[in-house]
Design a protein that fits this description.
alpha/beta; binds 4'-phosphopantetheine; about 160 residues; five-stranded parallel β-sheet
């Protein structure tokens, strides 16, 4: 039973995240999509909303035999991963610019917990420029975001406006 954690802020979940989860499902038997609880960061969607949206969206994607669950965590990611008996952390890398930060995190996490591996996955090219931050920015400036996020996310963002 190979279990991985896919951590992130997911504010909001994008089609790029879904692409990574589906790719991760080819490698792991279980993926826990883990939302970071970060009280210092003002989020567009609260933790409960993100959790509910993610859970609903997970039911709409094809994840084969892989079990996908949604959870949240506070504090150190490696500690959470050990508590969940996870073997790996999955992170998506879009461009070289992501690599430096991701490498630092992966190496720090390895130092803290050498048994835990970080697996980097590349999303489909069509999502290589999609980030939660840019989705929020263009949405707030009135641009369309269809195709970048699941329809439920777009709907919930419009309700918030
Ligand atoms: O979606 P994000 O914001 O890029 O995700 C970043 C995340 C949640 C992976 C990272 O901030 C994290 O792991 N935070 C938990 C605290 C922690 O373990 N920090 C040390 C990382 S080396």
């Amino acid at each position: 039973m190979r279990r991985a954690i896919f951590p992130g802020s997911f504010d909001p979940v994008t089609n790029g995240h879904l692409d990574i989860i589906q790719r991760g499902c080819k490698l792991f038997d279980e993926i826990i999509v883990a939302i970071l609880v970060n009280p210092e960061k003002t989020a567009f969607f609260g933790l409960d909303e993100r959790s509910e949206i993610l859970s609903q969206v997970m039911q709409t994607i094809d994840h084969g035999d892989c079990k996908v669950t949604v959870d949240s965590f506070e504090g150190l990611l490696v500690q959470y991963a050990v508590e969940k008996n996870a073997h790996a952390i999955v992170r998506g890398i879009r461009a070289i610019s992501d690599y430096e930060y991701e490498l630092q995190m992966a190496l720090m996490n390895r130092r803290l917990q050498p048994r835990l591996e970080t697996v980097f996955m590349m999303p489909a090219e069509e999502y290589s420029y999609v980030s939660s931050r840019l989705v929020k920015e263009v949405f707030q400036l009135g641009a369309p975001i269809d195709g970048l996020v699941p329809p439920l996310v777009e709907q919930r963002m419009r309700q918030k406006k």
